[in-house]
Each structure stands twice: as structure tokens, then as C-alpha cells.
Amino acid sequence: MSHLLRRHPTHSRRPRSRFASPSILWGGGIVLFFVLLALFAGPLTALTGNDPYSEHRSLLGPRSVPLGFGGGISPSHWFGVTPLRGVDLFSIIAYGTRVSLGIGLASTLISVVIGVAIGLIAGYFPGVTDAILSRTMDVFFGFPFLIFAIALSAIVPDSFPRPLLLILVLGFFGWPSIARLIRGQTLTLTHRGYTSAAQVMGASSTHILLNEIMPGLLPLLIVRLTLSIPGRIAAEASLSFLGVGINPPTPSWGRTISDAVAWALVDPMYLIFPGLALFLVTFGFNLLGDGLSDALDPKAVIRAEMTETAETSKTTATESSTRNSAPAVVQQGGNR
Amino acid sequence: MRMFDYILRRLISSLLVILIIAVTLFLIFYMFPSNPAQLSCGKPCSPEQLRRVSAFMGTDQPWYAQLGAYLLGIFAGRTFGTGASAVVCAAPCLGYSFRLNEPVTTLIAERFPVTASIAVGAAVLWIIIGVGTGVLAAVKRNTWVDRLLMALSAIGISSPSYLIGLLAIIVFAFELPVFPSGGYVPFSRNPAGWFSHLLLPWLVLALINAASYTRITRTQMIGEMEQDYIRTERSKGAPESVVVGRHALRNALLPVMTMFGLDLGSLLGGAVLTERVFSMQGLGMLLLDSVTNLDLQVLVGSTLFAAALVIVANLVVDICYSFLDPRVTVGR
Amino acid sequence: MAFHYFFAHRLHGKRGSVRHASVALATLFAATALVLSGCGSRTSQTGIGASPSSSPNTSASATPMKGGTLTVLTSQSSLSLDPATSQSLPTTTTGLVHRRLTTWKISHGKTTVVPDLATTTGTPSDHGAVWTFHLKKGLRFSNGKPITSQDVKWGIERSFSDTFTGGLSYHKQLLAGAANYHGPFSGQQLNSIETPNDSTIIFHLNSPFGAWPWVASLISFAPVPRGDGTQKSYGNHPVTSGPYQVQSNSPGRELVLTRNPYWKASTDSVRKAYPNRIVYRMGQDDTVAAQQIMQGVNGGDTSILGEFVPPAQLAQAQANPQYSQLLVTSGDGALEYIAINTRHIRNLAVRQAILWATDRAGYRTAAGGAIAGNYATTLITPGIAGRQKYDLYHVPTGGDPARARAILKRAHVTVPTLKMVIQQNKTEQASAIQSSLKKAGINVRIQVLDSGVYSDTVTNNQGNYDLTIASWQPDFPDAYANLAPLFSSSMIGNGNQNMSRYSNRAVDALMTQATQTVDQKAAGKLWAQADQRIMHDIPVVPLIYSHNTFIHGSRVAGFDIGNFPAYPDYLTMGLTRD
User: Fold this and answer.
1) Minimal CA–CA distance to C293: which of C59, C45, C453, C122?
2) Inter-chain CB proximity A147 and B303 less than 8 Å
3) pTM (2 decimals)?
4) What is the ipTM of this complex?
5) Domains, chain B, ranges and CATH?
6) CA atoms of B330 and B313, how far apart (whole Å)
7) Are B44 and C231 inside 8 Å of each other by CB?
8) For C200-216, what is each residue's pLDDT tens digit?
């Protein structure tokens, strides 16, 4: 308990400006922009009287390629229209933001929750638990995700909402890499003096996991998370082609980009706008993640923890002994 | 020997994992409302003919019988049909493709070199680039070098990867034709051609992957370099290069190793994106084609092979862990 | 790194369904693939290609020379050369290596059936239930052995073996006593094929069948040396009878054909055999391959694309005068249609409403433009003997949603949300249909499926869909191959293509009568009658007769598409001098 209380001052000691770094401001700004775009897609597209479904065939030439500059860019179609059907591209991107962000965030959340829980447990409890969980991870790693996705499309009734299915599929298959990373880190952290100290002090496993190990994992987790979200957004794109993706006409960046790739040389703006949107949102998350991880400062967190532990329990090893002579710590690592 | 015991135990549990994957695959395809025989029945197809084809391919059996026959085939070989036209698939039989008319093992053997060439070459590049830039960024933390590298890696990570591949082809194969636009040339046939055809895919794949290695290496390095033991080393007067190289890097590399092992392992099972974009017929394309064509035996065979690679990679990673991190010892 | 799969798959998915097109043009897969992306300009609009002049060098200014290596780039991943398992057209790949009893003479007027190994296209007797063929003299296999009537018989018998399935099976349902025949490998013969001497072969059919000369042109009628071809892998290195033989074959990757020294041009009226070598590169990305051919890099100038030009590359090539010279567009080809599952949608009023609501103009735009094909009203496609042009309903090309609503209102039905299954490459077209039906108050839910799953879904016994977009080009230019596979009640499920699951006894009887009529004129009239009779029930909504556009390298000549099939004639292609 004392840890909990004592850690708060550690946080507040940190200068506020850390969280006002350019990375966080820019990254956060970009992410916020897309969140707003998602929320206000309706009113924004209503400004020009557009929606992501209506066809504007009159804007297409005889080869179904949009007429005019930049794929038909005009005051009423800010990003032009798509080839073949003449749908307003800005509307597609605006509404598509909902799908992309929603799936990216929700599936990452699922993966992180499962991954962290399993990774912590596997890393902290040696022996059978770790062995079982590690083998489960292996199954998931070796498992042909693609095949599963296709099979699901045929098995799951098509009345089941596709976005939800996608979130579940991506979330459920995305956890093992997180779990594995967390497990490895947990192993390392467990062997640093401070956890042993807590163990010696008689703290419960849950307490140690949540209060000792978890915070040490946070920076890594944040990096992982920021890396993960854009990956999911891109994965939605590709899955849209597997039949487990978002079915038309629901707008989706992924489907649009995939469609537009072939048109790159003919109607470049068709690819550039959604590609840029995907790039920006990914970039935003990455910047934000970088900034946050700097602000949270992994070493600072770890050091603070270690100092605290060392102070509270003068019993055991200093960090140098943890490092260089590892005798005190029983090594469960290899025994998976 | 502890190490030997450990590896043996891991191998056994790995076989179990592979078995579970095989069972799941067969189950999925059993639940699948489709009969692959339908696709090779011919046109037009009579119910009688369909029944015969199903019997020949064995798809009229319940899933566990199909699975049993498949697993048995791995050890004992398999024969489809009877008489002079029977198809014999010698052990280790990972199945037989009724679409390509080859045993799956032959198909894998033909295509693995393609995938391996792509994967290993790219992996070497990306680990060098990724770790190198990561360490540099960490050492030069908060300088312009760090910022530039991080910005580049953020851009790298944020770029949709298939776009980079296609753009690379458009630019380097069509606009200024310095590289071939695709295709694979076996090393044995023409080493120079092998290299020139692979260079572009290597670069694309390496750049896509290196960005995340840069980041993870940097984060880890910074974490390690602020550890007290490093300060202890420094205070002892150890040269900075030794501190960074031997101590910090060694510990920082653990998670990087994990990631690398898994990435390489799964890439060896099929570099689908790269194979597709660069028209190289490796394992990835084999797997994809088997999915789109419901070629169950190829699907299972190549999946099990890919899964085995991932599991072996996992095993290697874990063993390396024990060498790299003295605290994580094996077998105790 | 499961994500590697994702990306790849989408690139791949674009083409998923095209893969079968180049060899098995008219297979189910191809039928659905046919339309796909490959919709293009009509010949007259690009001013090149399959122009009405019948000279073989319409596609390029020069005449093909003897020699050189022609490359075929294809996104396909398998290519069967086994006569028993292939579904290939006589005028594409297998036509280069296998001769049959009869074959096709491609022309811009009318494609005709002509003798190939045989001296005639067959002599009927017993009102068309017995057909007799005589072989030409001096025919030899690529292994030097003479080709006899027993070899032809053996080839056909092989196709009944359970080991060799997947090919064209028209003959299996026509030959007498074939129902319980399992192939020649256990020593049994098929008695309905007689070979009284080395050069004579006689077929006994279940019932009279007027289009038998066409059936005898299909790949199943290629000779296989008697006793040979027992192994499943025979098709990878078959003994050939055509101008080429297999030099090397790495399934799914590369096939190299070289000249067959035993083939004699004097015995062959259709095959020109210009190139010395023909190389197939499989598993290519079609957008990259099209680009390669346009720019002439990486051997693109001596290559052709085995599939239709993808829509984007088509637009790109059309906009460039130099590239547009490389395009060749077919005339009216496959029928593209919406199949309405009549077992789910039993109410004729609903099907009428769908017909009236369908915006064919929107569909055609989404398929690549006003030039993707001509609007369709009949089920028998243009160029097929006996076809009568008609338009039962005179629906405007843009549809008439108001009228559709009125029909539904009068019938007092509310239509539940309909499930439309499609392949990935049909997304845009399906969306266009979806939005047009919505205007009539009919909601459609689209489900996109991968090609294998799609084929299975629409041809299996469950039929779990309400609508699908399909396309069909007959396997041979006879109305039988046009209508029977799509509308005969015996073609429902079991892997067959009656996707509307349409079953009407009167139509079945009419089609049987037409099939058994040997007099082609009389048969044609019956088929035309069946055509209209079917459209009274509206099991399908005809959309367009698709025009397929292909591309060839600048040094490829003789790249020609006749009136039928809507596919280039591989037998007359060659290279020009540099």
C-alpha cells in the first residue's frame, strides 16, 4: 500500500512540460483531428450535400474515370469522386474514419488486455502455468490467421455485424505477440531486486504483478500499443478483401485503398487521399506514443521503483547484485 | 544434459502444438459448408461423379477420419484410389495436391528456396539497419540524429507497406528501369540474376520491418543505459563502447531477439506480400492459392510447415535467451 | 506477422477469380471471372484489334515470323495439360499441345467446327445417336508413335477414372452405358466407343445429340497413347499431338513449350505454330504484368497477358495512343447477369420488381464504362446459331424503380433484405446494383467472398444466397452449352451452375427436345423458344454481353479475337522481327 501512496508524488514531481512535448502535441493533435472527423462525419459531409453512397455518374468520363482536375476535385467534392461509380471521396474518408479508428482501438484493447494478463501470468508463475500459456501462444503464432478469417466468413452467419466480427478476430489473434513481449519483460523485471524484495516482504502475487511489475512494463506496452493500432487499421483494409472485412457499401479506408492501388497511375488522387489519411492517423499515433513513452520515461519509472523498493526493504540485494551476480533470484525462465 | 533435456521437452510440446493446429484446421474445414471435391468434379458435374470424386479424395469421410488418414500419411505414406492409376504419396506425406498434381512435400521443397532467399536476405538487412539506427538514436538521444532517425522510423512505420512495394516497382522497374519488376531466378542457375531480382524485394521488406526495430531497440537501449549497473560500469572506468556494446546492448537485445526470431520464423513460412508484389512463387503464394482454391491438403501441409518454422524460431529464441541473459538459465 | 498475409491477400484478391480465365475460359470460375475487370472498348472505338477484317495480323502491322520466344504472363497458379482434367478452350493453351477429333476455326464471321485429327466433323447415323470419325493419315505423337483411334478412345476412357476428374464432362452424360464406367485402368473398356480399325472411331450416344461435332472438339477428345497416362501427374508432362511439346514444367510457376518435331503442318488447317518456344509465367500480378507489357520492359514487348486487362490499366492504356495500339477487344462475349435464387424468391412479382429496378447503365459504368459491353436482353449470347434477338420487357437501361415499387405494391409483398454474394472483383458492380434496388425499396446486403468459397457457395446443394452476379460463356458455340448448364433442373447444386436454382418441367422438356434435334436449324428454333420461355419466369436479370479486352506486347503479331470465343486465338500468334 505504501507503494501506491508513495508513487503518486513521483509522478507529480515530473515537470508538466514533459507532457507538452512537440511529439505529444502534434501526435495528439492529429489523433484528435481524426477523432473529430469521425464524430462529425455527418455534418461535415452535409455541408456539400454528400454521403458515401450516392453515385455521381455524370462526373465520370466515358472510361468511368473522373473528369476534371485531381480526380474531379471541386467545391462540392473536396477530394474528388471515385472511378467507376463516382462516389464522393471525402465522404468515404470521413465516414471511413469511424470504421478504421473503431476497429483499430477496440481490437487493440482486446489484444492488450488478453496479452498483458497472459504475459504477466506466464512470466511470473514458473512451471506448469507458464508452460501451458506459452504453448497456447505457440498455437496462436503458428496458426494460419488468414485461413481462420476466411473460414469464419463462411461459418459465421452474415447477419452478425461485420465490424464486431473484425474487432473480435483481430483482437483475439493479436494478443500473443504482446503476451510474449510482456512475458519476457516480466521475467527480466521479476529478477530485479525490487520484486524479490516485495516477495520477501510477503506481498501477494497479485499485488506484485499489478504494483511492482505492471508499471515497469508500461513504457514498453505503450510503444507496443502505438505500433499496434495502425497495424490493425491496415489489417482491416486487407481483411475487407477476405470476406470478413467490412462489406460494401459501408465506407472503409482499407477497401478504398486496396481498390485504388491499381488506379495509382490513372487517378492518383483516388489513392493519395485515403493513403494520406491512413498515413497521418498512423503517424499521429506513433508520435503520440513516442512522446508518451518519453514523458513516462521508462528508466525513470524503473529507477523510481527500484529506489523505493531498496529503501523500503533494506534486506536484499542492490541493483548491481541483481545484475551481475544473479544468485538470489531463482530462474524459472528457461523452464517453459 | 540439462540443455538436451530442455530441447527434447520443447520438441515434444511443439509436436503437440502442431497437432492442435492440424486438428483445428480439419475441424474448420469440416464446419465449412463446402466440399473441395465439388471444385474438381468437372463440368457439368453429376451427383454420381461428385460422390466418386469425394470418395477418391477422401472428403466424404468425417473430419477425424480425414485427419487420421492425413496424420498417418506423414509417417506411413498414403495412396489415393486403387489400381494402376492410384496416386502414391510416399512418407513423409504432407498431402497431395489434386490441383497441381504434385505431393505437397515436393511443392514445399520447390518453393522454400524462394521464400528463404527473400526472408533471410531481408532479415539480415533489417536487423542491421534496425538495431544500428536504434542504438545510434539511443546513444545520441535528444540530438538531431535521434530526432531524424525517430522521424524516419515513424514515417516508415506509418507507411502502408504494400504501397511501398508497389511504388518501388513503379519507380525502379518502370520509371527508371534499374531493377527487374519481378520474378525469381534460382541461385544455381544464375547467381547475379538471383541477386538483382532479389535486391528490390529485400530493400522494401527490410525498410518496412527495420522501422519498428529501430524503435524497440532505442527504447530498450535507453532503458538499459539508465540502469544502475551501467552507471556502475561507467564509474569503474569501462570505455563507453564496452558499456554500450557489451552490457547495454546485450540486455537491450532480448526483446529485439524475441521479435526477430518470430518475424523471421513466420516470414520463412511465406513472405506473402513480397512474393505477390514481386511475382515470386514461394511458400506464401502456395498457401494463398491453396486457400482460394480450397486445396485442403496443400493448405494443411504448408500451414503445418510454416507453423513448424515459427515454433522452431520460438525455440531458438528461447535458447538464445538463456545464453544472452545469464539470469535466465535453462532447465533449473 | 500475420499482417503479411493481409496485404498480400488484397493484391492477390483483385485477381482471385481471373486465375482460371486463361485456360479454362468457360469454366464456372472463368464464367464468373470473365466479366470481372476485363471490360473494354469495342473494337471500332479503339480502331484496332479484332476488327472485322479477318486477316490474322489485325493486332499489329506486321505478319508473325517463324521463331522466337513468346511469353504468356498469367496470374493463374495452375495450368492443367491433362486432357482428362483440363477445361481449356480448343484455341488456347491446350490447343497448342493437344489435337482433338475436331477443332474450331476462328473467324470474325462465325466460328465453325472443322476436322482436326479426323477427316470430317463426324458422320451421324441412327438420327444422330451414332457418330463416326476417321483419322487422317501420318499423324504422330511427340514420342514418334503413330496416333490411332485406340489412343483417342483411351484418352476419353481415362476421363472416366476417379483419379482424373475436373475436366469438361459433356461427353460423360451423353455416351451410352457410361454411368457406371470407372475408367480403363482396371481393364474395362467403354463399349459405347468402337474402334473397328486404327483409323476409325464410332460413338454410341444415349440419345440423339446434334451438337456432337462440337463436343468432339473439346479437350477430352485429345489422344493419349494407349496404356499411358496412368499417373495423376501425367498432365505435367503429357505426350502431345499438337505443334508443341513440354520442355519443362514446374507446376504453378513456369511452363516451357518447344516444338514437337513430329507435328506436320500439312495435316493441320488451324495451327500456325509461329514461335519456337512459348513460356508461361504463372502467379504474376496482373497490374504489374500489364504495365510491363505496355512499357515493353523486362521482356514485355514479346509477352501477352493471359487475363483481361485490369480496369485501371485499361483506362490508362486507352488514354495513351501508343499503348492503346496494344489492346484488342472482343465483341459480345459472355452474358453477365444477376442470378435470382428462385428457391428463396418464389414470388414472380418480386423477381419482376428486381428486373425493373435494376440499373444496367450503372452496372456498366461500374464495370469500366459505357464500353464494357452491350446491354443484354436474351439468354443465348450473340453469335450462337439459332439465337433470336428479343426484349420481353423493354426495361429502360437505367431501370424504372417507380414501376418496380408499383409491382410490389400491387402484389402486396414486402421484400426482406436480400443477401447478394459476390466475388471481390465485383464489389463496384454489386454496389451499383445495390443502390439501384434500394431506390425501389428493395434492400440488399452484400457479402464478398473469396473465389474458392464463392464458387462453392453458389454451386453447392444448400444455395445459401438470394442473389449473385455471374457471367457465362458457353464451352462451345451451341445454344445447348448456353442454356442447359444454367437453367436445366439437373444442373442445380452438386457443383453445377444453375445458380438461380431454376426448375421448370416445361423448360426441361423443351431443352431435351432441342438437344435431341439433329437438324441444327430446327434445333435453333427450339432453343430460341426455350430462351424466351425462361425469361417469362425471370430467374435471372440479363445485364450485359461483356466485351473482353486483352493486351499484347509491341512485338506480338497475329493476336486476334474472333466472333467466338471472346478470347484471343493462341494458335495463330507469333512475334514480329525486331
Assistant:
1) C59
2) yes
3) 0.79
4) 0.76
5) 33-93 (no CATH), 105-329 (1.10.3720.10)
6) 17
7) no
8) 999 999 989 888 999 99
